[in-house]
Amino acid sequence: MAEEVILLDYWSSMFGMRTRIALEEKGVKYRYREEDLSNKSPLLLEMNPIHKKIPVLIHKGKPICESIIQVQYIDEVWPDTNPILPSDPYHRAQARFWSDYIDKKTAGPCKALQRETGEKQEAAKMEFMEVLKNLDSELGDKSFFGGNVFGLVDIAFIGFYSWFRTYEVVANLSIVAEFPKLIAWAERCLKRESVAKVLPDSDKVLKSVSDYRKNILGIN
């Protein structure tokens, strides 16, 4: 275990997708361990005793937690292939700002979109659509968030694309129709082998969430 790269993750986690995409971009071989989030493994609890959450990247027997930190770690440890962060200090700071923005502004509303109904879900819809508007504005007419190069912000956000259909169905959002530039951006990202290999099928995500809402939460 000491020399290999291990990722503790869950298949539909848009956060874990970031780490998997970064590893694929770098051509790093790793061992994937699917976690049961209702019965977390002793290894997960040992490697992330503070938050007890996936994803956890284990390299040379040592844990790296939090997906954006993992992506930056991967970029630093394997710098020779497909740089993820810009070399220019200002552009690097901007990339970190927007990836941090995505983390801080999406976790709450995205959880509520899939688990709540009524006023709580409506509030989450407004929050999430505001995030999409800001990201749409930041993307503008660029191919990727960093310009012509696939990078940190793209990796930070592309996993959410596999959840768009779920949000449209369970929360009655209109993402595809209202944000064609973001959809075109996502389709460009999907042309990369790393992204296409990692992102799950949107219908599979929808079925998983629908089953959870019905069987666990009692929401039809």
Automatic annotation (TrEMBL):
Domain of life: Eukaryota
This enzyme's EC code(s): 2.5.1.18
Native organism: Brassica campestris (Field mustard)
InterPro entries, A to Z: Glutathione-S-Trfase_C-like, Glutathione-S-Trfase_C_sf, Glutathione_S-Trfase, Glutathione_S-Trfase_N, GST_C, GST_C_Tau, Omega/Tau-like, Thioredoxin-like_sf
Span of domain GST N-terminal: 3-82
Keywords carried by this UniProt record: Cytoplasm, Detoxification, Transferase
Reactions catalysed according to its record: RX + glutathione = an S-substituted glutathione + a halide anion + H(+)
Annotated GO MF terms: glutathione transferase activity
Family: Belongs to the GST superfamily. Tau family.
Identification of the protein by name: glutathione transferase
Lineage summary: Eukaryota, Viridiplantae, Streptophyta, Embryophyta, Tracheophyta
Domain GST C-terminal, first and last residues per copy: 88-212
Keyword set includes Coiled coil: no
